[in-house]
Each structure stands twice: as C-alpha cells, then as structure tokens.
Design goal:
Blueprint: H1 2-40, H2 43-55, H3 62-78, H4 82-95, H5 102-116, H6 125-140, H7 147-174, H8 178-191, H9 198-210, H10 212-236, H11 240-281, H12 288-306
Helix pairs in contact: 1-2, 1-3, 2-3, 3-4, 4-5, 5-6, 5-7, 6-7, 7-8, 8-9, 8-10, 9-11, 9-12, 10-11, 11-12
Length: about 300
C-alpha cells in the first residue's frame, strides 16, 4: 500500500514538472516564432504567436515579456488596428515605464489616437489624448528621435482644435447668436492664432460684435414688458410689504436688463476698435471691403440710435 501511494506521488510530481516545462517551452517557442514573424513584417501571424507567448509567459524573463508586449502593440499598429494598438501600447507603458521603447510607444499612441478620433465637428477627447502623448515626449524625452514627430502631432492637434472652435462660432452665427459666436471667434484668435486665417477671424469677430444686439432683442423686450407690468402692480399695490416685494423683483429685472444693454454696448465698442485697427494689421486682406461696410453699418446704427429709430 505504501509503495502504491509513493508511486502516485512520484507520478504526480513528474506530471506537474512536465507541465511546467511544457508551459516554459511553449512560451519561449511562441515568443521566438512571434518575433521572427514580426521582424519579417507578417504582423497578422506575429500577433497571434505573441499573444500566446504572453498568455503562457511562465519562464519568460521581464525583458522577453517587455519585448513581446511591444511587438504585439506594434503589430496592431502596423496593421492599422488602432484601437487594439492603443490598448496594448497603454498597457506596455504602464508595465514598463522605464523601457527605452517608451518614446516610440508614446509617439505611436499619439498617432493611433488621431486616427480613431472623429472629425473636427465632434468630440475632441481622442484628439486631446494625442496631444497629451506627444507633449509627454517633449517633456520627458527631449532628446528622443521622436521629438520632431511629436511637434508635428501637436501642430495637427492644434489645427483640429482651431477648426473645432471656428465650427462652433460659425454654428452660433448661423443660428442667430452673434454674441456667442464672437466669444468663440475670440477664443480661436487667442488660443490658436498660428493655426487660423487671422484676418478672417477678426472680421467675423467684428461682424458678430456689431450684431450682438440681435441675440438679445427678444430677451430685452421681455424684460421691459415685465418691468412695465410690475410698475402698474407697484402703483396699484396698497400693502407696503407686498409693494416692497414687487419693487425688489423689479430691481432684479432692471439689473438683468442693464447687464444685457451693457454687454451690447461693450460689444459695439470692441467692434469699433477691431475695425479701426484692421487696415494697419492686415493691409493686404481680402476682407477689407467687408470691414469697411461694417464701419458704415456701425455709424448708421449709432445715427439711428440717436434718432431713436
């Protein structure tokens, strides 16, 4: 009986040992095969062997595992499977932050994020991610050979962001919100001056500032009507406490009304400044005539205002 038990224990130990060795050799074999395929450019087959090597990574050294993970990420990248490439490159950087391959991983991550990002009219989350990865190269690896590429990515990111902001501005303008449009034209000019047609943006900013009143006409009219109605109620109200409530409500409405009027007046003054300096700033602009027309329109608005028309 003892001999049988001993035999079973020995057999189990041998089986376990053989299993470990099998796993060890499979991991090594798959890694070697995967890297050979990767070097040959057969990325489709390479990624399958590399995935299996990583899955059966028992016996692989940290350096081998690092090599396998980078090759897998790069295989996805070279096959333009950018979502999977992003997942694997992010994992690679998290697991091996001191690897000399990190700058390359960051660079290819940035490009991958750009490729999966929607157009400039939609959400810019992935565009921002691309910019962050490229900036990390500049900040953390200033001597890397990927610095030039990172700068180009950042330039592309800024071009997309500029187009995005201008698209928002043009959309507000299209739907009769000139003051809001001017705010976004201003943002485009302030943040992305080197990525826009500057004279066009200044012209559009001036145009929308001059027409800022159009956005608030109905709101202003509503405030005035409410104030007029409150005046009647205040005159009719006999109870002092109730009268004070009405008076305070009127004050709040007047504050809102005056705030909008001040915004409109400030907008027009800003437009005048932009128009006055336009010729000097952009002597060869193709928008010179449009800006001159804005100047005439501004003067006409002032005249009509004085005549109370």
């Amino acid at each position: 009986m003892k001999n049988k038990v001993f035999s079973v224990l020995i057999s189990s130990a041998l089986l376990f040992s053989c299993g470990s060795k099998t796993e060890f050799y499979v991991g090594k074999e798959k890694l070697s095969k995967g890297l050979q395929l990767y070097e040959k450019g057969d990325y489709k087959k390479a990624k399958e062997s590399l995935k299996e090597a990583i899955f059966k990574s028992q016996g692989l050294t940290p350096t081998e595992l690092m090599e396998a993970r980078f090759a897998l990420a790069d295989s996805y990248y070279n096959r333009e499977e950018y979502v999977d490439a992003i997942v694997e490159f992010e994992e690679f950087i998290a697991l091996f932050p001191t690897s000399p391959k990190v700058p390359e991983a960051l660079y290819k991550l940035a490009i991958s994020y750009l490729f999966i990002s929607p157009d400039y009219k939609r959400d810019l989350t992935y565009v921002d991610k691309a910019g962050e990865k490229a900036q990390e190269i500049l900040d953390s690896y200033p001597n890397s050979k990927y610095v030039g590429g990172a700068k180009e990515i950042i330039k592309k990111v800024n071009e997309i962001k500029a187009k995005h902001i201008l698209y928002i501005a043009e959309t507000y303008e299209k739907y009769g919100k000139p003051y809001s449009a001017a705010v976004y034209y201003q943002e485009a000019y302030t943040k992305y001056k080197n990525y826009i047609e500057k004279d066009y943006v200044i012209y559009k900013m001036a145009y929308n500032l001059i027409h800022a009143e159009d956005q608030y006409q109905q709101e202003i009219q509503n405030y005035r009507e409410q104030i007029k109605e409150l005046d009647k109620k205040i005159d009719q109200e006999k109870d002092l406490e109730s009268k004070n409530v009405l008076i305070n409500r009127k004050k709040l409405l007047e504050e809102q009304l005056n705030y909008l009027i001040e915004r409109i007046n400030t907008s027009k003054e800003k437009a005048k400044e932009l128009i006055a300096s336009f010729d000097k700033a952009f002597p060869d602009s193709k928008y010179k005539d449009e800006v001159k027309n804005l100047e005439k329109e501004s003067k006409l608005q002032n005249l009509l205002k004085k005549l109370n028309i």
